Amino acid sequence: MALAMHHTEQELGWAVNLATRDDTTAQTFHHRDGADPASLYRPAAFTHDLGTQHVLHAVAPILHRTPTALETYHGVDRQHSLSLAHALVCLLYRPANEPWPPGVPYVETLRMLQNLTGDERLLAADILGRHLLHAATDLPANTVIDILDHMTSPQFTRAGGLSASAWLVLAQCVHELAGRPDIPHDQLSRITRRFGPRAPALNTGGDPLTRLLCLLTEAQTSTMWHGADHPPGEAALTEASTLLERLPHPRPPQVTVGLLRLARDVGADDWLALHAEPLLETLTVDGLQRLRPTDIDWLQPLVRDEALLDELNLVTRRWRQR
Q1: pTM, whole model, 2 decimals?
Q2: Strand residue runs (E) in 149-246
Q3: Residue 192 and residue 265: Cα distance in Å, rounded?
């Protein structure tokens, strides 16, 4: 599915009248003069064109969710072109046994995303971000840094260009890259400085849960915590606990456990003495199983309820009992 694997009959550069200034200049085009692809449904059904109906059925999610992607093209040269819809499908079909196929069109995809607006832009960026989270460890350092640098830039995220949920995915991606030896520290630091509570993307659908998950993701490594410029002490803890209080019950157990660990990391002993047991009591039995025995070591002295202590001791026994 990569650009290098195009068949001649699949090339649409001539059909949609793409042209470049020379054979080496790549540009992005938006073709607005073609027929609405959705109009193909009726004639295909009327003539019982089963082949076309198969294709329309397969691409229906693109037709209905990101129709502009079908007619947004990147002209590579006078012989080759690529639509954004094709590029997004290429990301899905990255072979598991070939982690870095040379034709996967990351650069072209980023350029074409600029032509989308509104919900289409948000969805396409989310697709690219979720792909990057799973592919980043296999990609060359310069490729993954270039993509992250572009997608986290103020130019890309401002004016609602990236959703808060996609921002969370990118935060998780940066977290996974922290400590990777081939990633230049200065370049990763430039990207991590864009995170934190004032990131513009958090204003696009940034509900309390997404904001809290972003903060807790940033707290998973010292690289991100320092880069996102969180103040030392309990200021971030106050922000996180405020976000947690805005969540309805039942709350996702990972955010409660994450908040307790954050309090431990910032040295908020007085806060933990007051809040640890009430927070633990909001967790179900299964939720308590998200704790590790190293958590129990410092939580146990803060708990008085016998039933809760029994559950905490069970966690420890499952890890340490011989």
Answers
A1: 0.86
A2: none
A3: 20
